[in-house]
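Posting for a labmate who doesn't have an account.
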Amino acid sequence: MTAPAAALPTYLKKLTHLRQGVTKYGKAPHKPILLLTFIELFEKGEITANKVYISPELVALFKEIFALLVKTAHKADFFFPFYHLSGEGFWTIRTRLGVPLQVYIGNFNKLHEAVDYGCFSEELYALLHRKEHRDVLKTALLDRYFPDTKNSYLAIKQGSYIQNLQRYLLNESTASYALPESAANEEELFIRGGLFKKLVPQVYNHTCCMSGMRLVSSHGYSMIDACHIVPFSLSKDDKVNNGLALCPNLHRAFDRGLVSVSEKLRILVSDAIAEDLTNAYALLHLRGKTLTLPFGEKHFPSAANLAWHREQVFKGIGPMNYIFALFLKFCGKRSLMFLWLMDMMFCRVCFSHW
């Protein structure tokens, strides 16, 4: 891609003469912050096509840069510049329906629901791909909009916002990040939800903790889900110790109470199901297996949360699970083969009468 160097003066003027809303705290800094966010993503090689999707990483980086550069009482609302930057002539937003927006975007959730991605003008996109042009635009933005904080920003820039939040979600920090689920926190909740989905599979090495399945494609896609033990809607808890890494079918089975985890971290399977046990993927084959745990005890699933799931979601302990629990308590592992044979016989009888 050949960058049109002749266009650089034009875009220097455009980027240093942005239309900014005026508030009681001064001119809104959101548009230049978003542009600096885009520039950093180009620097990291994370924008490789002229389509910028709304992702937790994008929103988190915006908030991080905002915190480092803005010292006024402006709120770090991401939805505002992503939408309004389209009025500057070099940024376009594409809707999911492919038609122009017919409604006012007044909060983050509306933006995320309506907008598919944003894209740059071809000239600006080409300029941002060249480091020498990118550096000129970045310096101009910092000099024009943040002359008092640019030096400290450049000195401190270490990803502190994202790193601190990740440490909290990984249960490695005692800092409180509890948030009520309200419109004012939509963007923060979006970031945290995205990090939860990313971090839980990571600490389990992208391995289903029940089946042991591990599948990562050469494109970086994983078939392992991050499953909340206690639903976020009830707990507001998105730490990794409120999560399990599960393959999609076991994620659904866990959410529906067909499987759970005992106090001894062994897999429980509801007696309220009947399966063809000749199928290698039958849930009942998992009964009694020890859960595969993540690295680091601080990442282990919360005993209190697992107890909640057994009591509130699991579909009850029928006779076989009850016998299994008693044998484990009093006889230990030596009884497992005997119990497995009993389980096979019991479930074949159930299946034949289903």
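Reply:
Got it, the structure tokens are right above this. The beta strands are 22-23, 26-27, 91-95, 115-120, 225-228, 243-246, 259-261, 267-269.
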